[in-house]
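--- STAGE predict ---
source: upstream dedup step, 1 unique chain passed
mode: sequence only
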Amino acid sequence: MKQAVVLVSGGIDSATTLAIAQQEGFAAHALTFAYGQRHVVEVERARAICEIAGVIQHRIVPLDLTWIGGSALTSGEIEVPKDRNGAAISQGIPLTYVPARNTIFLSLALGYAEVIGAYDLFLGVNALDYSGYPDCRPEFLHAFTLLANLATKAAVEKLGRFVIHAPLVNLTKGQIIRRAVSLGLDLGLTHSCYDPAPDGRPCGRCDSCILRAKGFAEAGVEDPALREPKSGR
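--- STAGE serialize ---
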């Protein structure tokens, strides 16, 4: 089996991406980053998802991005936007953008992949619902692929060519949820909220909660996370 490094955050998109990678025959090595995010509950959800998926190895990487700041997800001084409509969500780069996050995550995943001899990297970015995030767009993925094949010993010595897979990049949230259901995923394990309560319950009002609810409505599926709270284990 070919080896792949899969970024798993604990959300619907990354869980679905992991399942797609495995369905395509890749042996998955999962990476989750504990980067100082206020919704750190997603790390435990990622752990549960990877245990059930039976990945080759799941590494939870401590990475403090709070010192950079500049994001509602890593700074206590910036409020997470709430109660925004679809038009507001789709306009501009939101306060929940974490500076250079996907560039940092992919760089670390690339280094890990080079060491274990994996040339395929999977991540669950989406350019439709999250079009405001510059590091979720196809042009970013294309540019990083070029970088990966210029800046690594493995690529320069022609041991392999790195490929960045983003199978959900052009799907709506509803389409992603339907794909997840078809793959048999327990979406009740996933976490989407940017500003959860201390016990992990979603706020229901942030952009991510709103997009999640819209996606389940579009898919015609009930969100299992609303039926029964999950501990993440």
